[in-house]
Amino acid sequence: MQSVPLHELANYDLADLEKLLKALRQDIKLTIEFVGFTGERWPASQKLIQRKRVPLE
User: Fold this and answer.
1) Distance from CA of residue 51 to its chain's centroid?
2) Cα Rg for the chain, rounded, in angstroms?
3) Are the beta carbons of 20 and 5 closer than 8 angstroms?
4) pTM of the entire predicted model
5) Does the pLDDT value for residue 40 go beyond 90?
6) What are residue 50's phi and psi, to 5 degrees?
7) β-sheet bridge partners, residue 13
């Protein structure tokens, strides 16, 4: 059995990722844990992506 990605981004850009996640969340309930984004904000909404560091960082 092989896993298949839900979506693939052509460009690695936070604005594109934010748009993709918004569209996916309209159809699918997802729980996503972001690691390595401490203090970073989403470009459009300006919401924090990750509040505090996790042990994986």
Assistant:
1) 14
2) 13
3) no
4) 0.68
5) yes
6) -140, 125
7) none
